[in-house]
TrEMBL record:
Keyword vocabulary terms for this entry: Hydrolase, Magnesium, Metal-binding
GO MF, any single term: metal ion binding
Cofactor(s) for this UniProt protein: Mg(2+)
Binding site for Mg(2+): 71, 89, 91-92, 217
UniProt-listed PROSITE patterns: IMP_1, IMP_2
UniProt keyword annotation of Disulfide bond present: no
Matching InterPro entries: IMPase (IPR033942), Inositol_monoP_metal-BS (IPR020583), Inositol_monophosphatase-like (IPR000760), Inositol_monophosphatase_CS (IPR020550), Inositol_monophosphatase_SuhB (IPR022337)
Originating organism: Pulveribacter suum
EC number in record: 3.1.3.25
Upper classification of the organism: Bacteria, Pseudomonadati, Pseudomonadota, Betaproteobacteria, Burkholderiales
Catalytic function, reaction form: a myo-inositol phosphate + H2O = myo-inositol + phosphate
Feature: compositional bias, Low complexity: 282-294
Name of the protein described by the UniProt record: Inositol-1-monophosphatase
Region ranges (Disordered): 280-323
Length: 323
Protein backbone atom coordinates (compact mmCIF):
# COMPACT_ATOMS: atom_id res chain seq x y z
CA UNK A 1 0.00 0.00 0.00
CA UNK A 2 1.19 3.50 -0.77
CA UNK A 3 1.75 6.12 1.94
CA UNK A 4 0.57 8.79 -0.51
CA UNK A 5 -2.94 7.32 -0.72
CA UNK A 6 -5.75 8.42 1.55
CA UNK A 7 -5.77 6.25 4.68
CA UNK A 8 -9.32 5.06 4.02
CA UNK A 9 -8.40 4.01 0.49
CA UNK A 10 -5.40 2.12 1.86
CA UNK A 11 -7.69 0.20 4.23
CA UNK A 12 -10.05 -0.59 1.35
CA UNK A 13 -7.12 -1.93 -0.68
CA UNK A 14 -6.05 -4.11 2.25
CA UNK A 15 -9.60 -5.47 2.51
CA UNK A 16 -9.89 -6.10 -1.22
CA UNK A 17 -6.59 -7.98 -1.38
CA UNK A 18 -7.56 -10.12 1.63
CA UNK A 19 -10.82 -11.02 -0.12
CA UNK A 20 -8.94 -11.67 -3.36
CA UNK A 21 -6.66 -14.15 -1.59
CA UNK A 22 -9.72 -16.10 -0.40
CA UNK A 23 -11.17 -16.08 -3.92
CA UNK A 24 -7.92 -17.22 -5.53
CA UNK A 25 -7.52 -20.12 -3.12
CA UNK A 26 -11.07 -21.26 -3.77
CA UNK A 27 -10.58 -20.93 -7.54
CA UNK A 28 -7.99 -23.72 -7.39
CA UNK A 29 -10.83 -26.18 -6.75
CA UNK A 30 -14.08 -24.51 -7.80
CA UNK A 31 -15.99 -27.81 -7.84
CA UNK A 32 -15.53 -28.10 -4.08
CA UNK A 33 -17.17 -24.73 -3.41
CA UNK A 34 -20.63 -24.88 -1.84
CA UNK A 35 -23.21 -23.00 -3.89
CA UNK A 36 -26.74 -21.90 -3.05
CA UNK A 37 -29.31 -20.06 -5.13
CA UNK A 38 -30.90 -16.79 -3.98
CA UNK A 39 -33.33 -16.89 -6.91
CA UNK A 40 -33.29 -18.31 -10.43
CA UNK A 41 -29.88 -17.62 -12.02
CA UNK A 42 -28.74 -15.68 -8.94
CA UNK A 43 -26.11 -17.61 -7.01
CA UNK A 44 -24.16 -17.13 -3.81
CA UNK A 45 -21.23 -19.24 -2.65
CA UNK A 46 -19.38 -19.75 0.58
CA UNK A 47 -16.60 -17.77 -1.11
CA UNK A 48 -18.87 -14.72 -1.46
CA UNK A 49 -19.66 -14.98 2.23
CA UNK A 50 -16.07 -15.53 3.40
CA UNK A 51 -14.86 -12.71 1.17
CA UNK A 52 -17.51 -10.35 2.53
CA UNK A 53 -16.70 -11.29 6.11
CA UNK A 54 -12.99 -10.51 5.78
CA UNK A 55 -13.76 -7.19 4.07
CA UNK A 56 -16.16 -6.14 6.81
CA UNK A 57 -13.77 -7.21 9.57
CA UNK A 58 -10.90 -5.27 7.97
CA UNK A 59 -12.96 -2.11 7.48
CA UNK A 60 -14.61 -2.11 10.91
CA UNK A 61 -11.33 -2.86 12.69
CA UNK A 62 -9.96 0.36 11.23
CA UNK A 63 -13.21 2.37 11.36
CA UNK A 64 -15.62 0.88 13.91
CA UNK A 65 -17.95 3.88 13.66
CA UNK A 66 -18.61 3.47 9.94
CA UNK A 67 -21.65 1.90 8.33
CA UNK A 68 -21.70 -1.08 5.98
CA UNK A 69 -23.91 -1.95 3.00
CA UNK A 70 -22.92 -5.35 1.61
CA UNK A 71 -24.51 -7.54 -1.04
CA UNK A 72 -24.89 -10.63 1.12
CA UNK A 73 -25.47 -9.21 4.61
CA UNK A 74 -27.11 -5.88 3.80
CA UNK A 75 -26.81 -3.30 6.59
CA UNK A 76 -26.61 -5.66 9.55
CA UNK A 77 -22.98 -4.71 10.29
CA UNK A 78 -21.49 -1.38 11.27
CA UNK A 79 -23.09 1.83 12.53
CA UNK A 80 -26.53 2.21 10.99
CA UNK A 81 -26.66 6.03 10.87
CA UNK A 82 -23.04 6.91 10.14
CA UNK A 83 -22.22 9.52 7.49
CA UNK A 84 -19.53 7.06 6.31
CA UNK A 85 -20.91 3.98 4.54
CA UNK A 86 -18.89 1.26 2.86
CA UNK A 87 -20.63 -0.30 -0.14
CA UNK A 88 -19.34 -3.82 -0.83
CA UNK A 89 -19.69 -6.48 -3.50
CA UNK A 90 -17.40 -9.25 -2.24
CA UNK A 91 -17.46 -11.24 -5.51
CA UNK A 92 -18.96 -9.51 -8.53
CA UNK A 93 -19.30 -12.16 -11.22
CA UNK A 94 -20.23 -15.14 -9.05
CA UNK A 95 -21.69 -17.05 -12.00
CA UNK A 96 -18.40 -16.66 -13.87
CA UNK A 97 -16.49 -17.80 -10.78
CA UNK A 98 -18.45 -21.00 -10.22
CA UNK A 99 -17.91 -21.96 -13.86
CA UNK A 100 -14.17 -21.26 -13.70
CA UNK A 101 -14.53 -18.35 -16.14
CA UNK A 102 -11.86 -15.92 -14.89
CA UNK A 103 -13.76 -12.62 -15.05
CA UNK A 104 -14.82 -11.47 -11.58
CA UNK A 105 -13.72 -8.95 -9.00
CA UNK A 106 -14.03 -7.44 -5.54
CA UNK A 107 -15.73 -4.04 -5.38
CA UNK A 108 -15.47 -1.66 -2.40
CA UNK A 109 -16.61 1.97 -2.25
CA UNK A 110 -16.86 4.48 0.57
CA UNK A 111 -19.74 6.96 0.43
CA UNK A 112 -19.59 10.02 2.68
CA UNK A 113 -22.99 11.66 3.20
CA UNK A 114 -24.26 9.76 0.18
CA UNK A 115 -21.44 10.68 -2.23
CA UNK A 116 -18.81 8.10 -3.23
CA UNK A 117 -15.37 9.39 -2.25
CA UNK A 118 -13.10 6.33 -2.52
CA UNK A 119 -13.24 3.25 -4.72
CA UNK A 120 -11.42 -0.04 -5.19
CA UNK A 121 -12.11 -2.69 -7.83
CA UNK A 122 -9.72 -5.64 -7.55
CA UNK A 123 -9.40 -8.41 -10.13
CA UNK A 124 -7.68 -11.25 -8.24
CA UNK A 125 -7.07 -13.43 -11.31
CA UNK A 126 -4.90 -10.76 -12.96
CA UNK A 127 -3.82 -8.96 -9.78
CA UNK A 128 -5.24 -5.77 -11.30
CA UNK A 129 -6.02 -3.10 -8.72
CA UNK A 130 -8.19 -0.17 -9.85
CA UNK A 131 -8.41 2.70 -7.36
CA UNK A 132 -9.85 6.20 -7.20
CA UNK A 133 -10.28 9.01 -4.73
CA UNK A 134 -12.56 11.90 -5.63
CA UNK A 135 -10.54 14.74 -7.12
CA UNK A 136 -7.32 12.71 -7.33
CA UNK A 137 -7.84 10.68 -10.50
CA UNK A 138 -8.20 6.97 -11.23
CA UNK A 139 -5.38 4.43 -11.29
CA UNK A 140 -4.61 0.87 -12.36
CA UNK A 141 -1.71 -0.63 -10.40
CA UNK A 142 -0.42 2.88 -9.56
CA UNK A 143 -0.62 4.02 -13.21
CA UNK A 144 -2.99 6.88 -14.06
CA UNK A 145 -5.81 5.78 -16.36
CA UNK A 146 -8.10 7.75 -18.68
CA UNK A 147 -11.18 6.89 -20.71
CA UNK A 148 -10.68 6.26 -24.41
CA UNK A 149 -10.28 9.09 -26.91
CA UNK A 150 -12.53 7.62 -29.60
CA UNK A 151 -15.30 9.93 -30.73
CA UNK A 152 -17.08 7.88 -33.41
CA UNK A 153 -19.50 5.26 -32.13
CA UNK A 154 -18.78 3.11 -35.19
CA UNK A 155 -15.21 2.57 -33.92
CA UNK A 156 -16.20 1.76 -30.34
CA UNK A 157 -16.29 -1.40 -28.26
CA UNK A 158 -19.23 -1.37 -25.83
CA UNK A 159 -19.86 -3.73 -22.91
CA UNK A 160 -23.17 -4.71 -21.37
CA UNK A 161 -24.89 -7.27 -19.18
CA UNK A 162 -27.73 -9.45 -20.35
CA UNK A 163 -30.95 -9.85 -18.32
CA UNK A 164 -31.15 -13.24 -16.64
CA UNK A 165 -33.71 -13.11 -13.83
CA UNK A 166 -37.47 -13.78 -13.91
CA UNK A 167 -39.32 -10.58 -14.73
CA UNK A 168 -36.49 -9.08 -16.79
CA UNK A 169 -37.68 -7.61 -20.06
CA UNK A 170 -35.83 -9.72 -22.60
CA UNK A 171 -37.58 -8.24 -25.62
CA UNK A 172 -36.62 -4.68 -24.72
CA UNK A 173 -33.02 -5.72 -24.08
CA UNK A 174 -32.79 -7.45 -27.44
CA UNK A 175 -33.93 -4.22 -29.09
CA UNK A 176 -31.34 -2.24 -27.12
CA UNK A 177 -28.57 -4.62 -28.15
CA UNK A 178 -29.68 -4.44 -31.76
CA UNK A 179 -29.57 -0.65 -31.70
CA UNK A 180 -26.03 -0.69 -30.27
CA UNK A 181 -24.62 -3.60 -32.32
CA UNK A 182 -25.37 -2.12 -35.73
CA UNK A 183 -23.75 1.19 -34.79
CA UNK A 184 -20.55 0.04 -33.08
CA UNK A 185 -17.47 -2.08 -33.68
CA UNK A 186 -18.63 -4.67 -31.17
CA UNK A 187 -20.64 -5.55 -28.08
CA UNK A 188 -19.21 -7.60 -25.20
CA UNK A 189 -20.76 -9.26 -22.15
CA UNK A 190 -17.98 -10.08 -19.64
CA UNK A 191 -20.31 -10.72 -16.69
CA UNK A 192 -19.06 -8.46 -13.88
CA UNK A 193 -20.45 -4.92 -13.90
CA UNK A 194 -17.86 -3.43 -11.54
CA UNK A 195 -15.08 -4.70 -13.80
CA UNK A 196 -16.97 -3.45 -16.88
CA UNK A 197 -16.94 0.05 -15.40
CA UNK A 198 -13.26 -0.25 -14.49
CA UNK A 199 -12.53 -1.19 -18.10
CA UNK A 200 -14.35 1.92 -19.33
CA UNK A 201 -12.20 3.97 -16.96
CA UNK A 202 -9.05 2.33 -18.32
CA UNK A 203 -10.08 2.87 -21.95
CA UNK A 204 -10.28 -0.87 -22.69
CA UNK A 205 -13.90 -0.33 -23.72
CA UNK A 206 -15.54 2.90 -24.79
CA UNK A 207 -18.88 2.53 -23.02
CA UNK A 208 -21.10 0.32 -20.87
CA UNK A 209 -24.82 -0.06 -20.26
CA UNK A 210 -26.92 -2.39 -18.14
CA UNK A 211 -30.22 -2.40 -16.29
CA UNK A 212 -31.19 -4.22 -13.10
CA UNK A 213 -27.98 -3.37 -11.25
CA UNK A 214 -27.76 -2.75 -7.50
CA UNK A 215 -25.79 0.00 -5.80
CA UNK A 216 -22.94 -2.37 -4.84
CA UNK A 217 -22.49 -3.27 -8.52
CA UNK A 218 -21.85 0.33 -9.59
CA UNK A 219 -20.70 2.42 -6.63
CA UNK A 220 -16.94 1.84 -6.95
CA UNK A 221 -16.86 1.58 -10.73
CA UNK A 222 -18.77 4.81 -11.22
CA UNK A 223 -16.12 6.82 -9.35
CA UNK A 224 -13.39 5.15 -11.41
CA UNK A 225 -15.14 6.30 -14.59
CA UNK A 226 -15.65 9.92 -13.54
CA UNK A 227 -12.14 10.24 -12.11
CA UNK A 228 -10.80 8.89 -15.43
CA UNK A 229 -12.60 11.67 -17.31
CA UNK A 230 -15.77 9.81 -18.26
CA UNK A 231 -19.46 10.25 -17.55
CA UNK A 232 -21.90 7.93 -15.82
CA UNK A 233 -25.66 8.14 -15.30
CA UNK A 234 -28.92 6.47 -16.20
CA UNK A 235 -30.05 5.80 -19.79
CA UNK A 236 -31.44 9.33 -20.17
CA UNK A 237 -28.17 10.87 -19.00
CA UNK A 238 -29.21 11.91 -15.51
CA UNK A 239 -26.36 11.71 -13.00
CA UNK A 240 -28.47 10.62 -10.00
CA UNK A 241 -28.49 6.98 -11.09
CA UNK A 242 -26.95 5.01 -8.25
CA UNK A 243 -30.12 3.31 -7.00
CA UNK A 244 -32.21 3.57 -10.18
CA UNK A 245 -31.18 0.11 -11.47
CA UNK A 246 -29.93 1.35 -14.84
CA UNK A 247 -26.40 2.46 -15.60
CA UNK A 248 -24.75 4.02 -18.64
CA UNK A 249 -21.09 5.01 -18.74
CA UNK A 250 -18.54 6.11 -21.31
CA UNK A 251 -16.15 8.75 -22.51
CA UNK A 252 -17.99 12.09 -22.83
CA UNK A 253 -18.58 12.03 -26.61
CA UNK A 254 -19.58 8.36 -26.65
CA UNK A 255 -21.74 8.73 -23.56
CA UNK A 256 -23.78 11.41 -25.33
CA UNK A 257 -24.27 9.22 -28.39
CA UNK A 258 -25.34 6.25 -26.24
CA UNK A 259 -27.87 8.42 -24.40
CA UNK A 260 -29.31 9.26 -27.82
CA UNK A 261 -29.63 5.56 -28.61
CA UNK A 262 -30.73 4.14 -25.27
CA UNK A 263 -32.66 6.97 -23.62
CA UNK A 264 -35.97 5.75 -25.03
CA UNK A 265 -35.53 2.45 -23.16
CA UNK A 266 -35.19 4.16 -19.77
CA UNK A 267 -37.96 3.89 -17.23
CA UNK A 268 -37.61 7.68 -17.09
CA UNK A 269 -38.21 8.14 -20.83
CA UNK A 270 -41.09 10.27 -22.08
CA UNK A 271 -44.50 8.82 -22.86
CA UNK A 272 -43.91 8.99 -26.62
CA UNK A 273 -40.65 7.04 -26.41
CA UNK A 274 -42.21 4.43 -24.14
CA UNK A 275 -45.10 3.98 -26.55
CA UNK A 276 -42.69 3.55 -29.49
CA UNK A 277 -40.73 0.91 -27.58
CA UNK A 278 -43.88 -0.97 -26.60
CA UNK A 279 -45.00 -0.94 -30.23
CA UNK A 280 -41.60 -2.24 -31.36
CA UNK A 281 -41.69 -5.00 -28.75
CA UNK A 282 -45.12 -6.09 -29.92
CA UNK A 283 -43.96 -6.08 -33.55
CA UNK A 284 -40.48 -7.51 -32.86
CA UNK A 285 -38.91 -4.71 -34.90
CA UNK A 286 -36.51 -1.97 -33.76
CA UNK A 287 -37.96 1.47 -32.98
CA UNK A 288 -37.30 4.12 -35.63
CA UNK A 289 -33.97 5.90 -35.33
CA UNK A 290 -33.12 9.45 -36.31
CA UNK A 291 -29.49 8.65 -37.09
CA UNK A 292 -28.42 6.21 -39.84
CA UNK A 293 -26.55 3.09 -38.75
CA UNK A 294 -22.79 3.40 -38.52
CA UNK A 295 -20.53 0.83 -40.09
CA UNK A 296 -19.34 -2.14 -38.04
CA UNK A 297 -21.34 -4.56 -36.00
CA UNK A 298 -20.65 -7.43 -33.66
CA UNK A 299 -21.50 -9.22 -30.49
CA UNK A 300 -19.40 -11.48 -28.35
CA UNK A 301 -20.40 -13.19 -25.13
CA UNK A 302 -17.87 -15.48 -23.44
CA UNK A 303 -15.95 -16.02 -26.64
CA UNK A 304 -18.79 -16.61 -29.10
CA UNK A 305 -19.54 -14.06 -31.81
CA UNK A 306 -22.35 -13.53 -34.25
CA UNK A 307 -23.29 -10.91 -36.78
CA UNK A 308 -26.21 -8.70 -35.87
CA UNK A 309 -28.40 -10.10 -38.63
CA UNK A 310 -27.89 -13.63 -37.27
CA UNK A 311 -29.14 -12.76 -33.78
CA UNK A 312 -32.32 -14.75 -33.01
CA UNK A 313 -35.51 -12.85 -32.38
CA UNK A 314 -36.47 -12.18 -28.78
CA UNK A 315 -38.65 -14.93 -27.32
CA UNK A 316 -42.38 -14.21 -27.24
CA UNK A 317 -42.93 -14.55 -23.53
CA UNK A 318 -45.47 -12.66 -21.45
CA UNK A 319 -45.12 -8.89 -21.79
CA UNK A 320 -43.39 -7.78 -18.60
CA UNK A 321 -42.13 -4.50 -20.00
CA UNK A 322 -41.87 -1.68 -17.47
CA UNK A 323 -42.45 0.90 -20.20
Amino acid sequence: MSSTLHPMLNVAIKAARAAGAIINRAALDVEAVRISQKQINDFVTEVDQASEQVIIETLLTAYPGHGILAEESGSEHGAEHSDFRWIIDPLDGTTNFIHGFPVYCVSIALAVKGRVEHAVVYDPTRNDLFTATRGRGAFLNDRRIRVSKRTRLAECLISTGFPFRPGDNFKAYMLMMGDVMQRTAGLRRPGAAALDLAYVAAGYTDGFFESGLSIWDVAAGSLLVTEAGGLVGNFTGEADFMEQRECLAGSPRIYGQLVGLLGKYSKFAGAGDKAAVRQAIDADVPPAQDAPPASGEGIEDAGDSAAAEDLPAAPRTGDDAPF
